Amino acid sequence: SQQGEEDPQALSIQEGENATMNCSYKTSINNLQWYRQNSGRGLVHLILIRSNEREKHSGRLRVTLDTSKKSSSLLITASRAADTASYFCATVPGGTSGSRLTFGEGTQLTVNP
Amino acid sequence: GAGVSQSPSNKVTEKGKDVELRCDPISGHTALYWYRQSLGQGLEFLIYFQGNSAPDKSGLPSDRFSAERTGGSVSTLTIQRTQQEDSAVYLCASSLERQYYGYTFGSGTRLTVV
Question: Is the residue at A42 inside a domain?
């Protein structure tokens, strides 16, 4: 089963609005990462947050992590039509369970001009 | 090269044939991963190579799937006796070191088994 589960599955907003996507996971993690995918091909790494961090920023992106609730959120501020894509969260397990990423099913974001 | 390169970008094959998919990771990246993605779905882990360690093959769906990584660089994913359910986009990614770095993905190989 997928470790990360994104919510909502699909999100449609107007340009200029903020978009918030949530991710929940089941087991302990070393870090959590967010990726963007355009047109069903290669994924682009957006941001990584470690288990001992609570918030990170990168440009218009803000990621939060709540390890007590096993959840994370990705906020995209002042969205643009070019932000239209699928967004995936992915987790690296804690301890010595290896470093492979486990991906969720993704959120399809549509930003309407 | 500057990024992860995968070839071919598209492959159509007949059911029962064998296919080889190639991945050239970023130079110096010690970790290499294969995932596959069916239409509209998330990514399914297949196999992971880290340096000279034995690969983690736990995600390979059947013994028709195998992968190797030669010289710690180029990797080939081989699917024998392809089936229609093998149709998917196969994505390769590499990273510098375990755990603390994001992955760089290639553009994938879209495999269609007819």
Answer: yes
